[in-house]
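hey m, so remember when u said the tokens were messed up on ur end? i reran from scratch. heres the input so u can diff it against urs
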Amino acid sequence: MSSLQAVFPIYGAGARALLAAGVLAAFVVANAILQAILGRTLRGRQVHAGLRVLARQGLRVTLWLAGLASALGTLGINISALIAGLGLGGFALGFALRDILANLVAGVLILVYRPFQEGDAIAVAGQSGTVSAIDLRYTELAADGKRVLVPNQTIFTSAVVVDSPTAAAAASPAPPS
């Protein structure tokens, strides 16, 4: 006999379903509150739009999975095998998508550390041009009227030559006064 059955003798399948729905509803409310807090926090900082979307979606998926696992546990379903299966499936999926995930992580790091900005001229891995967009998967260069898409993993693991007005100003000594 579970502790809930000892406290609530009428704790049957209907009551468990109602309680599971309440647990899931609590996670939905928590998601809404945390999304608002995260949105307000990120809006006040200079965070790239792609990072904002990634953070919000990551939070949403995490809370939904936690809420679903809690609700299934409340229904009396043993979720340990499901969690283990998800872990093994996640490992296999991560291995299959390692290049995409490497580009995603490199894109996040490029957006966080900002080694160059849109409008800077860069040369990397035999490609050169002016940065026209930085995305989570690739960086877009404009060169000779063409669009060149360089994967972020390549940029993150290669030497990058940055030619920008801000970098030149920071590198040159101040004129004597």
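this time it looks ok to me. The first strand starts at residue 121 and ends at 124. if urs says something different then somethings off w ur setup not the seq
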